[in-house]
## 1
Amino acid sequence: MTNAQIAAAFDEIADILEFQGANPFRVRAYRNASRTLGDFGESIEALVHEGRDLTEIQGIGEDLAGKIETLVKTGSLPQLVDLRAQVPKTVLALMRIPGLGPKKAAALYRELSIKDLDMLKAACEAHKVRELKGFGEKTEETILKGLSLAAESQKRIYWAAADEYAQALLKHMRQCKGIEQMEVGGSYRRGKDTVGDLDLLVVSSDVAAVMDRFGAFSGVAEVLARGETKMVVRLDTGLQVDLRVVPAESFGAALQYFTGSKQHNIVLRGRAKDRGLKVSEWGVFRGEKYIGGRTEEEVYKLLDLPWIPPELREARQEFEWAESGQIPELIEVADIQGDLHMHTNQTDGAATLEEMVEAAKKRGLKYIAITDHSKRVTMANGLDGARLRRQWAEIDKLNDRVKGIKVLKGVEVDILEKGGLDLADDVLAEADWVVASLHYGQNQPREKITKRLLGALENPHVSAIGHPTGRLLERRSGYDVDLDAVFAAAKEHKKILELNANPARLDLDDVACAAAKEHGIPIVISTDAHSTQGLETIRYGVLQARRAGLTKEDVVNTRPWSGVMRLIGRK
């Protein structure tokens, strides 16, 4: 059982409890546990089998530890079974529609007996939803617009979750001695923020042994097909995994073909045709004659191109770069020197200030900014000016005794619904680093949202805008904002825009990060960590940055802190 599966179970408990109107602190405990387990760097299943004390994991008490052990050892959790019996699973999909929270979803279920997205669409089209108290015509229109997002969210998973399955599958398959080469392709290899399925490519002379081993993978719920060279299974989570066994001479061509993207491959086939060649998953051919395809490098070379990193294969600029010899040297995780967005247990984090610092130091970071929430975020016990200054005094003392890492006095200040920030300028002026974020009023009109962000960018004490579009993958579209205006203001006021590495956010997305680069706006990749394990998520942000074609020079926190200070105009 993967960490992602365990985290998903706790998230589902939180969903149902929230739907039922349970105590918000109880709901938050499960949400925090899900986030902690999803970010955890080690296999939870392995810890359980080793008899390790799970309460050593930050934020996991005895009750949650017991439930984790039950889930790992039995594959089920009685509490979740009971909750599922109380609320149809299809009803929970209603909560994934932007603007439709648990209270309204419960009202639809209770008042109109709506149990799934199809029933909800029919009710909206019949104008029955607008008649309910607290809804209205505008809410009905918002629901209709969000239905496609909710439907899609049931088909795709975060890249981070797909990575767990992919790594577990590769580890399992490596025990098969007949495998000579093996890679996972598809959108997973290209690093897309969400993944619909996994494509496993294998070279082996013993196809039967490979397929037998594949079918024995933990979590396989059903074998959908098994042929001479291809086998398809569905995992118990619903994720489909396709296995293809290919000849060694075709492995590079197959890996290139099944990595995609479709648009990239269309351009590649066009180049082949222009040169009197044909390229497919079997290789590169001149007429009927095979001329190459053992490696991806060979495929690209035959088409007069250098090898193109998988993350760039979206038919955007990669061919232009390749032809001119200007493929960017993409950023690596090792390039990151600091992390400038994280939380402690003084607001909604799971770890103490000291624990976050120690964990960051172990990761080899040279500096971090502690950016707990400001007072507007009441659900997170946000800090007012007095509490924030007390925290900063603690940081000063900590810097006196901790060597090898610089701890910066920061804050994630809220951009108010009416505009402006929820902490006074004299407080913000004392900070080393200020992240301004928009958490409330996300359904405001485009002009209002944009004006709020522009106001924050104009503030001389703001360093960066956090998760600039507010999207939550597969759960909430970003708010309606004029990004061109935001880019222009960021450039004018010499501000930084964040790529939030939380796998549920990855905000800015790859396209927006590439646009920011074109505008000359630096990006900061931050974890937004709420636990020590959350610091590990930096790699998801780096992967997104690679898809945008970013180099280390495009990302501010690849610099030492002195370099960042110069960039934001601090002495």
## 2
Amino acid sequence: MANWRDHILTEFTPKVARLTLVSDPDGLLLEEGILAGILQRGFEPIPFEDPVAFRYAYESRFRSGWDRGEQTDLVVVLHSGASDLDSLPYDLLQAGRRLSFNLGDIFPNLSYPVVAVLDRGDLDVLYEAQERHAPGVLGDNPTKEFVLRHVFGITPELVRTPSDLLRLLLRRHYRKQRIPSLLDERLVHVLRRQGGFESWPLESIIPDREVFFSFLQERWPIFLDRTAKSAKQKGSGVREDATPYRLELPGPADLSFDHADVRVYIDNLFLEGLLEAVPHEKAESLSKSWVAAGIRTDDRADRARRVDSLLDTLPSAIPNLDARHEDWFRIAGNWAELVSLVLDPDAALTEPAGQKMVRLQARIDDALLSWLTKRYAGLVNLPPVPPVMLHHIPRFLSRHVDGARQHKVVLVLVDGLSLNQWIVLRKELAQKRPGLRFRENAVFGWIPTITSVSRQAAFAGKPPLYFPNSIHTTDKEPALWTQFWVDQGLAQHEVAYAKGLGDGDLGDVEAIVAMPRLRVVGLVVDKVDKIMHGMELGAAGMHNQVRQWAAQPFMTKLLDLLLENGFRVYLTSDHGNIEAAGCGRPSEGTVADLRGRRVRIYPDPSLRHQTQERFPGALEWPPIGLPTNYWPLLAAERSAFVRKKERLVCHGGASLEELILPLVEIERRGA
């Protein structure tokens, strides 16, 4: 077969049976390409996890439609063995045909435990390598090395010099490659056995992206000192002499940044904010060489150089229709860096650069909307580890609570915080608390990107479809949050929730964390959302206000309190925001259930279409994962349903800034 997906998709022929029951112990139907293929064939998958939630969705969305004579091919997915299909309700077993898929059937010659830990998106390359090389039956360690070589491009026995190791780690961590710990352990073992890296902290810099870049950041000033000296003193290798420097991370002090295989990454590391430029007493002479990107000279000139470079490199990075969601996370992070630079109060964007940014923004918006139209529905049921959408986060957090009783976790949701505003907050936090480490990732919010949909999903741990009675309010969030954790086996007194935070008073949080048996906390910091709703000075004014708030002590004190009390801290948001221009206000009385600035919600599609005809650029968004009587109409492009010529900062649509949000683990270095 052409690829591993064909083993599965050939079984999905439309209109053979309206109900298909699938045993999927390895989560193969959760892979993006499989999900897209199933949806394109007219099938709609639904997991059987919570029997009550499943029965609600089944009866309200499918059984009722079948009774009306509608044709829908439903796939009920049980993530356990084929024999467990018998545990499904009797009426499903009577009506459905049965299928079963597992990795052992697709990769019969490779070690199942090794293949099972791979991200499902990596199976394409593995299947192709299996077909091309026909390796025969392999045990655990040979399978690990086969996967390292053919999936991740890592041949451990060829890593012999410091520059070899740096090149390997730069390629991996710059691309945000996720390699299972099982394979990392094998790589470390082989490198240790080969020798030559005795002083290197391989166990931390190989698997941990943030530690690796901290390792480089500490050693960059050392390299600049060597570069500023004569060629004879500088040399070209790695030196162990760290006497003049205080290094937090162990290992060689002087790295070969100037090696050709390493140097090629340096500009991008500083350009994208992965490394921070540093001042140097020889800055004037150093800035005339290839190390200029890592030298802090004139802040305004440095900022302008980064803006120009990002404007030049981002167009070629715009994902295509077949891209994976990680590609959008990557460009969202780089776009956020660009926006934060441009909106800095000391920035001075030239007219050509401003025009280039407007054109780039339009291209990104168009590409994202086309991709969402094709792939958004498949994101809902992706595995929660790592989280892809907001409702995945609670299930992801539950992994940290399932272990020892002393494990505690807190979700800090900063309402309305966009990725570019997170960069502003991060800089302030890093300045005030240099000992903090930020493990940065991203998640998709829900469309429409409004609080009652997106934030509620983050605390419910479920798509909005499952809380139709509270879809227009957030009053049920504490109950939904508590119910999720009770379903995971916690007692109610082990779970807490608080909102309305952000203005300096931590009394409520102090009382919560002092509770002796507490294990899980959800906190809503709504200051950024309040700033947005009162903003009259556009995106630049919004950034300035967020910066002023971040400079106040609230967030640093909150993080201090949580970390000192032993919590594992995660920060996220429910939606971002954009500056939008008015396109006119619909005159519809009480027809719309919600009359937002970037989105209107209607109880049925015909009412929505009447408004859409008067605003032909508006998008009739399908109710994916939403209640059956919830039909969104999104304002066109970067416009808002307010009077023409009015400009404001708002949310509710599907732009990059509104939809892709920060998910950050915050910890103390060395913790």
## 3
Amino acid sequence: MLFRSFFSRTLAAGILLLPSVLAGEGKWTPQQVLQLDTAALQRQGLQIPVSRLWDPARGTRLLAATVNIGGCSAGFVSATGLILTNHHCLFALVQEYSRPDRDLITNGFLARTLQEELPGKTTRVTVPRKFTDVTKQVEAAVPTGADDLARNKAIDAKEKELVAACEKKPGARCRVAAFDGGLQYVLIESFELSDIRLVYAPPRAIGEFGGEIDNWMWPRHTGDFSVARAYLDGKPYRPEFFFPVSTAGVKPGDFVMVLGYPGRTVRSLTAAEMAGQRDSYFALRAEVYGEWIRLLDETTRGSAAGTIAVASTQKGLNNVAKNAQGQLAGLKRGRIIEKQAQLEARVLAWAAQRPAFAPAVAAKNELDALTEKRRATAVRDFLLASIANGPIALRQATQLVRLAAERVKPDMERDAAYMERELPRLRDRLERDQKSFFEPADVALLSSLLRRLQAAGQSPLASAPDVNALYASTKVTELTGRLKMFTETTEQLRARHDPLLDLAFALDPALRALDQANKQDDGAVARLRPAWRRAVIAFAGKPVAPDANSTLRVSFAHVKGYSPRDGVFCTPQTTLAGMLEKDTGEEPFDVPASVREAAARIDPAKIPLDFLADADTTGGNSGSPTVNGRGELVGLNFDRVWENVANDFGYNPDIARNVNVDIRFFLWLLKDVEEADTLLKELGAAPAR
């Protein structure tokens, strides 16, 4: 049973398992939800039995309608496989089919028949089925006296073994998730759907209204939603459970639940580790990605084809760069690291009086020492890791070089990203990336990356190559040539004497060294973090939800406003009237004419658009279904307020607000603007005409 091991350990520490206060802080696992105080949940607004949320024996019920879609969250909303998620979560699929003479990014898309729906090359959905605690198996796989690198290798091998056994079931997609660095390991079995087709995406002026100016801000007036459909064996998939769409919506004070796959929080880190994240990750992200965004703007200006090609890349960079700025500002404003240090001091004093927790003190000190050691190479390490987010051609070249080396190994000994189960995805990505490649932009990003590596004083290259000459003669950027390289050996790739492949070969030793250093640190964390977390949890004397790790979670909340600063209070709901007030006729505040015309026939102040709640969310919760106490869909989570961006480091109930698009605006848009009666009927909200 999921989290039985976790709860038994906390019981041993004398922790009460059933909290009376549940809303707010906490991203709870499905099994933890079943352990919570049902009466307390009902007092807060839950109107269905907790047992209707999750059945651990069958791996289903309402939570199984919440799916993972490419790093975002989503929910089934019909018996015929319709999936509702954020516009920005399906943006890459929209971009895949856009071109200057058919600009779906700008104009939007609506399939009025099944035949018109657009299949995504790399879009996949996983549906949760089963969670199994495998902590004992993983821990037992580590040899006595193993060093940290050997520990990591043993854990990795055991995880691969468990996943391979799990994926013998037809359609299964499995992973082993570590909770709080190794306090618990859970085998997660999901059912994968690989045929996902675009049904509806609003114009960019709706799905991204306000652009980067409004991103992470409140008040918000963004219709961040899109619709896809899952297929199985060529027919619309029929999920066992889906979220009925509520036409009643929400009002201030209402109870809601946000269900999804939050990606990563760092509340289990020590204060020193948090400072390392601030200085060696978020500060560099804001600086480097900020430059890359500027370069994309400059190199695509005046080119419609270039603008479309880099749109998805630029959108992602914009989001993470502004997020990084918000993390830095929030850490400073909330003095989060200082507060963490104060908490640690109390935990250390408490543990010093309890011999059973002596290992926790040593573990905390060693974790801090590891962080200090990595500071020396932080800039180089960040830049090497950023190859995955930067120049497309270099990313492809490094993947091809690594694939050739990994392919000669037995499958279970390969790096997980290059195992046989991953190769179809890797090939699809190498093909799909052609839609996002624009050479002038890629040249600029690679030049920036290489220049920064040289400036860091730790470059793995003796000198930076002539980037323009490199692109002029490489075959990596050509789809046909690249797909041939996908099956070639290391010797064959070297024999090509392709300058971009040669660059990848030159970088490969440094990338491998970084990989080894990360694995050694991961092994150390798996040894140390559990000891420290046991002390922190025991000291807390109450249930503590584990850090987010891209697994299914539930956050309980209420619709409410907040005060971002002295003398200011923000109400929790916005309306179509507010969008029209912001309309300037120019990006990013250009309301489409069709929306203005439809709004002229009604009172726009009566059309709710976005709302706030105090749910505990993070990246990966984009597209999360927001449901009421009856399990009906009332909105989609798509953002946090600016003051709450540093929520990843610590929850502050005064400013912890997530931003949701109101389902009533989505329904109004389909009815009065798109006249999408067939889609509305499928959603159970057919209009009277």
## 4
Amino acid sequence: MTIVGAPVVPSRLPVAMGVIGSVLGVTGTSRPQISPDLQTAAEVIDLASRAIGKALRHLSSIGGADVHQVLAYDLAHAASAVETARSLLDYGAKGDHEGLITCAYTADMAHDLMSKLIGRESLWGLEPNPLATAVPFISTYRDPEFVASLADVQGPRHLDDDFEMVQDTFRSFAEKVIAPRAEHVHRFNEDVPEEIISGLAEMGAFGLSVPVEYGGFSEGGEGEYVAMVVATEELSRASLGIGGSLITRPEILTRALVKGGTEAQKAEWLPKLATAEVMAAVAVTEPDYGSDVAGLKVTATPAEGPDGTPGYVINGVKTWCTFAARADVLMLLARTDPDRSKTHKGLSLFIVPKPRGEAHGFEFTQNVRADGSTGKMEGRPIDTIGYRGMHSYEIALDNWWVPATNLIGEEGGLGKGFYYQMEGFENGRLQTAARAVGVMQAAYEAAYDHAHNRNVFGKNIAEYQLTRVKLGRMAVLIQAGRQFGYQVARLMAKGEGTTEASMVKAYVCKAAEWVSREAMQIHGGYGYAEEYSVSRLFVDARVLSIFEGADETLCLKVIARRLTEK
């Protein structure tokens, strides 16, 4: 990533503007003849990058993200948009249409950055109008007729043949098995159908990150990460609630085990995760501590089980534990060191077995303690406006016992739970971005189809400029988010890209809110009716900026902090 360290060199923008492709003879609703200008796009990206780099250094000098939260938040999103644009440059070189998408997105990014800056230049530590030389480029590639011309063709993905096969396979399953059930599950708040779980298991979806020696398909390299992104998008395109999120939770536990598990634990749990013999839920968040993981209160205290078996009893309350009823195990983060001053270093990660429960609430007891005491686990469902099927719960645990062998890393894993779970959460953010792309793709397709089949004032609404501009911008944002996701996947395969994973999540999830909203708006009154899928897509998109790291926390505590440190 080059934002903070971008070299401060004289901009060539004034020269580049002299060779930009111009609009040729645009009249009425005729398509503007604009050529892509990637050299100038790169100049605009560099100009924006240098402005953000200077602002980040200024932020660091005046107290940092905790003091100037609005500035830090805006900088995090602006930096994420710039990196999204940068990721498109290689894509834009693959063809004229790809180049036009790249230029359109870059102009959109620069315009958004300028709007953030107006009236706050001194707060950012910048001179007035730092992007002034980019205005001709922005004017050309934000021209309404030009953006409208992008409404019909989203551009190829440029996947390798192997990933095209992954896309085709998961799209076929999603359309045949998931999509026909999506609306019913959403409207009646039902469970994920078992045939979806078993079908994905047969396809190997839960073993994409499980190493081959443990029955999965992972052999390292970028294929594992890119395949996960491609599969997640296609499943989410059919349904976020009963498709796109199913493979995320086993993925998080898998990566935690691969990172910190003992050999015996890997041999025990990874094959079961790969085949869906064991389905997992993640129990990290607590009622008073959302993203502030260091403050967690749930405790795990040493206690003997039957026949003196060493183990731990877990006490406390977890919340927003998605899929907890259906899950066979919870990946649970608990405090094993009562010294709260140790914050993250006092936390350990456990695999907590449990029976399968009812979607609308469950209560279990266990009698495995050597002293005859009883453990209890109670799950209270949390009703939500969207993201239905997975179901979220508040879970109260009272002396729930687990063997010491279920502490990930066993004795060597004490105090390392936070770091093990973050191994999965970083990739979970990338997956969430892919889920957002899938939701956006479905929203665009629904809006495009409705626009071409709806007449208003004697005219098909797809012929109106405003509709076409909305569809054109949707197409650009979707491809930008998709290509950035591919790039982050490749970075993570090399052990890099943790900051970029947070950036792609922050940017794309906010974009999904706009795309789904405008898709609903294109439907007019029909978009507000539950019988149209776009209403489901709208409420589903809203959760994306909340889970896997709330947008504000992600921007302030992760993106802005890491960028200022650099």
